[in-house]
């Protein structure tokens, strides 16, 4: 699936000379002699249509996979930027100046403190463990739930400090400042955003063109089925009329009744089965599986209904 937030009602059938909306193409349908010459066997025409659709489907899957992979990776990175300060990425929050770096003995930790515990943190953080640097805490970020504080201490008491902080409901984040890693994460997000933007335009244009191609092929397949089924049912020489009917929902059943009455002489068995299926017998379900005295194929454009 490729979700590009396009309005399906704007879908069009595009030809070298013009473009029309789907309903107009359907109501004015003419067989494309250039693309599907009717002098060749029906099997050849059917195979050509199937090959075209298969190729479009294969290309779409490949293009969609590339786009969705980029989009998914970008969303995963963006998802890390949401949430509270206890879980979200800190790439755009921390600064080099907030940390004691390259020290053999000292380390700076990040601690998430609930808003209701700010005062308690200020009073107790220096005594949570030995060897905590006095007045080393500073709030570097805050959200609706709490604040993110730095604190500097000796490396050898880090585990003891974490345990004591946890007992007081101060949560130490497992984060250690690495400038190269942070830079790589920012660059990766920028690259993915750029790649997504570059893929979007060409993919959208390809989808519009090939949706048109697929729709045209689909309608030709419908026409081919109407022709072949009519010949199989009514024989040669060819003597039938194909037409397009678009009843509204309220008149659909009435239209069926009228068509059945008009054409029941073509297939008495089918007409009788329709009458039998219309009789509601408790516990018995009958289905004519869309088989009528006349050849019928449904073209469902309900997904493109703009009303």
TrEMBL record:
Statement: the UniProt record of this protein carries the keyword Cell cycle: no
A Gene Ontology cellular-component term: lysosomal membrane
SUPFAM superfamilies tied to this protein: Vacuolar ATP synthase subunit C
GO molecular function, one term: proton-transporting ATPase activity, rotational mechanism
Keyword field contains Transport: yes
The entry's keywords: Hydrogen ion transport, Ion transport, Transport
Family label: Belongs to the V-ATPase C subunit family.
Its biological purpose: Subunit of the V1 complex of vacuolar(H+)-ATPase (V-ATPase), a multisubunit enzyme composed of a peripheral complex (V1) that hydrolyzes ATP and a membrane integral complex (V0) that translocates protons. V-ATPase is responsible for acidifying and maintaining the pH of intracellular compartments and in some cell types, is targeted to the plasma membrane, where it is responsible for acidifying the extracellular environment. Subunit C is necessary for the assembly of the catalytic sector of the enzyme and is likely to have a specific function in its catalytic activity.
Assembly and binders: V-ATPase is a heteromultimeric enzyme made up of two complexes: the ATP-hydrolytic V1 complex and the proton translocation V0 complex. The V1 complex consists of three catalytic AB heterodimers that form a heterohexamer, three peripheral stalks each consisting of EG heterodimers, one central rotor including subunits D and F, and the regulatory subunits C and H. The proton translocation complex V0 consists of the proton transport subunit a, a ring of proteolipid subunits c9c'', rotary subunit d, subunits e and f, and two accessory subunits.
Protein's name in the database: V-type proton ATPase subunit C
